[in-house]
Amino acid sequence: MKSILHELAHSPYCLPVKRILEAWSIPFEARPVSAWDRRSLIALTQGAYYQVPVLEHEGDVVFESPDDPLAVAHFLDREFCDGALFPSEYAGLQELVIGHIENTLEGIGFKLSDPHVLDEISDLGERIMTARHKERKFGAGCVEVWREEENAIARDFETALAPYEQRLAHARFLFHDRPCYADFALFGVIENAEFAGPYRLRAELSNLRRWQSELRAYSAF
């Protein structure tokens, strides 16, 4: 029976989950969610959640909560990955790294892609409502500001990535010779930044580019 991943294709939180499902050869269907109409998720979670990712698997509906903001990753680790995503020897340290990735890095990187993702929404109503959602959180005209300041945002993003570039000069993945969840989280943030528009990691970030290529092709078997 296939799992169902309810996703936004460009989401930095969905991209890691999809790559994990692929890496562990877990059959799944990616089911797109409207950026501005989340009634399907509200119904699926009985009103408890409306964000992505949401994973359905054999009767379980898995989504994050205040008690477990990585609930989907933890579920996959228990059910399929045999503890590989959250090895006990890196407990605590990995959570610190994930916090930096999902807050500092994600808070910069999405601005490189979002204006171009918005351009690709063909439905006028969905495009306008998505833009208004951004403006309610980040201020009127924020999307156009991000578009105009793309080069400066890219510099800030790569400055924040510098410790990862340094680390990956000495290791295949962030912690050891196999990827942990922090690798997939970082992968999601970078793939999100590159999802739409012209931005790509500069060639000078050769360790990150090597790591990104390996993680794209990684198989757990």
Structural class of the helix and strand makeup? alpha+beta
Strand content: 5-15%
Radius of gyration: 17 Å
Quickly count the helices: 9
- How are the strands of the largest sheet arranged? 2-1-3-4
For the sheet with most strands, the description reads:
4 strands, mixed
Helix content: 40-55%
Order of helices and strands: EHEHEEHHHHHHH
Number of strands: 4
Topology, pairings included?
Blueprint: E1 3-7, H1 14-23, E2 28-32, H2 39-44, E3 54-57, E4 60-62, H3 71-81, H4 93-119, H5 124-138, H6 142-148, H7 150-167, H8 181-193, H9 206-217
Helix pairs in contact: 1-8, 4-6, 4-7, 4-8
Verbal overview:
By secondary structure, the protein is of the alpha+beta class. It contains nine helices and four strands, in the order βαβαββααααααα. The protein has a four-stranded mixed sheet, with helices on one face. A hairpin with a 2-residue loop joins β3 (54-57) and β4. α1 (14-23) crosses α8 (181-193). The protein starts with a strand and ends with a helix.
